[in-house]
Amino acid sequence: MAEAREADVRPRKRPLADAIVTLAETPDHVAGIDARFKQIARLAADRVGAADYASVTTLRGREYTIVAASSEVAIAVDEAQISDRVGPSLQALDTGEPVGVPDVAATMDWPGFHALAPTLGLQASVSVPLHMGRGAPGAVLNLYGRDDVAMQPLIFGVAQLYAVRHELTIGTTPAAPADPGAEELLGGYAEALAVRATIQLAITLLAAGRGSSPGDAYAHLCLRAAAAGTLLGEAATTVVEQHL
Questions:
Q1: Potential cystine with 100: which of 34, 84, 141, 155 (Cβ 3.0-4.6 Å)?
Q2: What pLDDT score was predicted for residue 171?
Q3: What 3-state DSSP class applies to 142?
Q4: Where is the GAF domain (predicted)?
Q5: Are β-strands 99-101 and 63-69 bridged in parallel, bridged antiparallel, or unpaired?
Q6: Are 126 and 100 in contact (CB under 8 A)?
Q7: CA triple 95-174-152, angle to 5 deg
Q8: What is the enclosing helix (H) or strand (E) of 193?
Q9: Domain extent listing, the chain
Q10: Phi and psi at residue 194, in whole multiples of 5°?
């Protein structure tokens, strides 16, 4: 019994959540960002039971790029969207808002995606923006599933977290509890949104206090974090505490 109690209090491993949160605290200019995107895609494919395939897409200049993919299926679906320059992953990247597709076959908004995904056995998807230090989405994590029922809790959970953070109302009833991997993803996404909000508040406070632009305030925050040997989230928390 004692051993069981000790096991219960040990911190649970959550590499996917930690990777998403760490990315939100990382300055955009840091080298090796693509490696972090690939890590998130790999962890999502391995740990989220509801999703059969995962990928990460980003925008380089004017070109959408597939940074990582767990299979040829994910690549094919992403390439169809990039070819049309429309699709749930591209919409999420452009708007910074998650895009859930609970029924791929019933979705007519994106012709290439609608035509190809069902032929590959995909029934549902969700695209989740991956935020970086500056605040804008640096990439999008796409999760594709063959079981739309299994994907529904994840799709709803992502939409609910975004809505709560932005004080929006969504008219969707909660689905059954998601699998542990999906819960880990949702936890990481929630924390990343909170970190992003703290960093944005710190930038606003620094810009006002220094009489500078948001860009200059962000650069100053990056310098503060580097000097302290911390990530942006911790540096931003310090700024907020000093001002408020």
A1: 155
A2: 58
A3: strand
A4: 35-147
A5: unpaired
A6: yes
A7: 65
A8: helix 180-210
A9: 2-191, 197-243
A10: -65, -40
Instruction: Check residue 51 and report its DSSP letter.
Output: -
pLDDT tens readout for residues 189-212: 999 999 999 999 999 999 999 999
Amino acid at 231: L
What class has domain 197-243? Answer: mainly alpha
Structure confidence at residue 177 (pLDDT)? 59
| Beta bridge mates, 100 | 126
Question: Looking at the chain, how many residues does it have?
Answer: 244
From the candidate CATH numbers 3.40.1710.10, 2.60.40.420, 3.40.50.1000, 3.30.450.40, the one assigned to the domain spanning 2-191: 3.30.450.40
Q: How many CB atoms lie within 10 A of CB 69?
A: 23
Tokens of 119: 């032929």
Q: Are the CB atoms for 162 and 98 separated by under 8 Å? A: yes
**Which residue is it, tokens 């860009």?**
215
Q: How many CA atoms lie within 13 A of 241 on its CB side?
A: 6
The amino acid present at 127, given as its one-letter code, is S
DSSP string of 68-110, one letter each residue: EESSHHHHHHHHHHHHHT-SHHHHHHHHSS-EEES-GGG--S-
Amino acid identity at 31: A
